[in-house]
Specification:
The complex is a heterotrimer of chains A (369), B (257) and C (283).
Chain A: E1 3-7, H1 10-21, E2 23-29, E3 50-54, H2 73-76, E4 80-87, E5 92-95, E6 102-108, H3 109-123, H4 129-136, E7 138-143, H5 155-158, E8 169-173, E9 177-182, H6 185-189, E10 198-199, H7 202-218, H8 230-235, H9 241-249, H10 255-258, E11 266-272, E12 279-285, H11 306-325, H12 335-339, H13 346-368
Parallel strand pairs in A: 2-6, 6-7, 7-8
Antiparallel strand pairs in A: 1-9, 1-10, 2-3, 4-5, 4-12, 8-9, 11-12
Helix pairs in contact in A: 9-11
Chain B: E1 8-13, H1 19-30, H2 34-37, E2 39-43, E3 56-60, E4 63-65, H3 66-78, E5 81-85, H4 86-91, H5 103-111, E6 120-124, E7 134-136, H6 143-154, H7 166-172, H8 197-200, H9 217-226, H10 233-253
Parallel strand pairs in B: 1-2, 1-3, 3-5, 5-7
Antiparallel strand pairs in B: 4-6
Helix pairs in contact in B: 1-6
Chain C: H1 4-9, E1 18-27, E2 32-38, E3 52-57, E4 61-66, E5 77-83, H2 87-93, E6 100-107, E7 120-125, H3 130-142, E8 150-156, H4 165-173, E9 178-183, E10 193-194, E11 211-216, H5 219-231, E12 239-242, E13 258-259, E14 262-263, H6 264-267, E15 270-272, H7 273-276
Parallel strand pairs in C: 7-8, 7-11, 8-9, 9-10, 11-12
Antiparallel strand pairs in C: 1-2, 1-6, 2-5, 3-4, 3-6, 12-15, 13-14
Bound molecules: flavin-adenine dinucleotide (FAD), iron/sulfur cluster (5 copies) and FE2/S2 (inorganic) cluster (FES).
Chain lengths: 369, 257, 283
Amino acid sequence: MNLQVLPKGALVEWIELLSARYRVIGPKRKQEVVQQQPAGDTQQPPREQYIFGELQGAHELELSYPSTILPPKKVFLPQKEELFSFKDNGHQVDLQLDERRTVIFGIHTCDLHAVLLLDQAFSQGAADQHYMARRANTTLVSIECLEPCSENAFCKDMGTWIMPETFDLHLTDLGHEYALEIGSAKGSELLQNLTNIRTATETDYWRFNQVISAKWARFPYRLEADLSELPSLLAISYRSQVWEELGQQCLGCGTCTAVCPTCYCFDVVDEVNFDLTSGKRFRVWDSCQFGQFASVAGGHDFRNSRAARLRHRFYHKFKYQSDSFGLAGCVGCGRCAEACLVNIKPIDVINKLHRKRVAVSGKRQEVMG
Amino acid sequence: MTVSTKPKVAFFDFTGCEGCQLTVIDALQTHADLLSAVEIVQFREAMSERDEDYQIAFIEGSCSRTSDEARLKAIREQAQIVVALGACAHLGGVNALRNWQSSDDVRRYVYGQGGKLYDSHKALPIQAIIRVECFIPGCPIDRNEFVNALKALLQHRLPRLPDYPVCAECKLNENECLFMRGIPCLGSVTRAGCGAICPSFGACCEGCRGLVSDPNIGWLRAVAVEHGLREGGFEAASRLFLSHELMESEGDRHGKH
Amino acid sequence: MSLPLIETFSTTSAYLPLVARIADVRPLTQLEKLFTIELPGDLSLKHAPGQFVELSVFGVGEAPFSISSSPSRSNGTFELCVRQAGQVTDALHALGPGDAVGVRGPFGRGFPVRRFRGKDLLFLPGGLGLAPLRSLINQVLDERSNYGRVIILYGARHPSELLFQDELTLWSAREDVEVQVTVDRSDGNWQGHVGVITTLIPEVQLYAPNTVAFTVGPPVMYRFVLVELLGKGIREGNIWLSLERRMKCGIGKCGHCQINHLYTCLDGPCFPYAQIKRLEEAL
Ligand SMILES: Cc1cc2nc3c(=O)[nH]c(=O)nc-3n(C[C@H](O)[C@H](O)[C@H](O)COP(=O)(O)OP(=O)(O)OC[C@H]3O[C@@H](n4cnc5c(N)ncnc54)[C@H](O)[C@@H]3O)c2cc1C
Ligand code: SF4
Ligand code: SF4
Ligand code: SF4
Ligand code: SF4
Ligand code: SF4
Ligand code: FES
């Protein structure tokens, strides 16, 4: 391993250097708009919220953020993106590819795993050049989490609380300095002209290992079933009453899929100009939780209840994607649980299904014994 | 698809605040090419001449008087396409708040002793009186939605409204949910399309765009209570724009239809 | 499967349609029209029967359509039989020869024609289901000697909804094709069979072990047809269906067409019944 050490103060210089060559994005504080509400209301002040956004300088970068509202997928797959424009009734079409050189700072390991999953989804078969163009021109600077970011996170269970094999640059907070691992040529390119960086000494390695091993105990397991059991757990739970119960609660709002770092479903819409002969085609985020997602012309809806749609989300996350990519479709970031108004949380859902299975097999054993 | 002659468009106002028509005037400023595509033949807010020959009628305001009904029917006779413009025409609007009381009480309250002389009744969406092809929801309407709806009509198709809740757009804007600040919000049962403009500015969604087609009102009520809104508070909040729709769905449940 | 058109645009974007021209429009019924589309330059679609394209009307949107012409008869052009059903299809019906449309594809898995050589082929299209099956039928007829019997049982709701009547007549006239047509409701002039498509099946004598069946139609039809076919002893792996789902991308990205873990646009739309019978969301 090639470990470098970077004093925290050097971030200022580094981001300045990078800003000359790249669009630099990182976690920063979100400025919430607060409106005066009538007196006697239940209103509380907004909590600190973080988002990935373009950085004006190192002072905006919040590397010890807990989580962001939206994951970094929005950089590769913007909420609304132009695919192409057309003129003359389509006789002329012009492709839009975004090839801005970009660096994203401060990606947590769960989100990094999620990006790798998106890479799979968008590169296999006919590749998605719009995603690939952004991805190819982006370098990721990830950061090790030393504490769980929330009680809803279950990254340890999903195996995403540690680094994946593939990365560009990775930071670990050593107190006054960052340990910096170099994972790719693209990553080391970011270090060009950076003076305030040194190769790790024996002591640095020791400190680094201390920090990493202290992390283990701080992260709890939250699922009662093992990652490898999830596909089979779901395989027997298709007709579980749990989906009906959750379907009653679910608002169908699509918040869970919007905030999910591995959800990528989209819709495609045209916008025309007043000449009716020119316009643009856009891709916009969609959600399998919306009523129209699986409906076809003529009105037939192939997933026609909130329960069925919610079940599909859990199956896509915990079974289908594992079956087809060999990677779980959920990285355990906890965002969906954090954001769901009716408290539908993967940890609870999985544990509930698991307990039901245990109860059933317990009964079976009683009968047989 | 070329349109040989410019379609003629007329705007009408009924019981409403004319805020939506102001948005239209605003759209005319920002989309100068709009006037190259249509001919506006009637628009009291913006011009004095009138022409009774039109194909597309935009109707603002709710129907709240018996005399409105005849006027609406006359417009329906002439127009090929009737568009309900804004929450009042679409849902009855804020005016429909009074539908929870008897019309006599409302008349006495608003007009005092002379109330009996006025023919106002419940504030109804225009769809309760005439067939409506197209809806542009909102209080006021969203400028882009108006422009896009007009383009769709010019393409001889009916614009399609999103059928998912405002929360979806609220998340696209990366807002913290207002419930987390103890502010109750109707975004999760309200039809999206406004870009979640209110929550994005820190104000709760009041449901001005009407309900999504499968609203989970029961659970939203529970959420509101869980976040400290007093019992009955949800009902009060939802009446501002959703009175007519809620009364209709009550009616459905009691088999009144 | 070769994806020739994708290759031509894979260097740019899989979402960028190729601009093609409508060469001909022929009304078939009140609701359906047959569009002949001409690709630019010397490109040809090189599709397999059962595959589909994404067709764009610029400024309105894009929708998936099965290719209705047979690969054996495509020469820089291909045909789509389109029912007027909504935004894109309405707009398409308003277009005429010379107008531009966007084409992406061909997408999906079609019918593996080679595998059916020497077999007796039983086609059961219901309504618009004839559009994709016509591609396979004509391919089979163009290499007729490779196959055993060819039996076509076609059902529509009403005589006025029968598609490709001229071709049905041609097929019926052939010695080596057995054709039966039925309608759910007749009108005064209808001389033929009346009843749903399943009523035709018991009357056909089949040698089940050598028969491959193809059925394409609305979801409700499948359930009944499958019962009959399985009752005849045709193997589950030898019954082919084509499934419709909402589709946006055609290349396994947008997520709309999922049937449990399968993507209809990649794994289908043509499936042997054996592959989907255990999928809860399939039928
Ligand atoms: C593999 C395949 C092959 C097909 N082959 C043929 C064929 O050969 N011939 C043929 O005629 N048809 C075929 N179809 C069906 C055809 O694709 C549809 O009829 C077509 O997509 C309708 O598009 P539209 O824009 O006209 O309809 P619209 O109803 O306007 O629908 C456009 C899209 O939006 C969706 N939608 C519907 N309502 C709403 C709403 N309220 N909000 C948001 N979205 C909505 C629809 O599900 C559809 O995907 C095929 C479909 C598939 C999947
Ligand atoms: S699970 Fe929660 S966040 Fe997801 S759609 Fe349902 S209510 Fe919304
Ligand atoms: S499903 Fe929830 S916990 Fe899992 S990755 Fe998505 S947002 Fe995170
Ligand atoms: S199907 Fe649903 S859960 Fe899966 S990626 Fe798409 S939106 Fe997310
Ligand atoms: S603030 Fe309102 S619209 Fe936004 S997520 Fe919360 S409930 Fe939904
Ligand atoms: S957020 Fe709600 S109240 Fe505000 S504009 Fe949208 S629908 Fe209307
Ligand atoms: S059509 Fe987009 S995934 Fe199949």
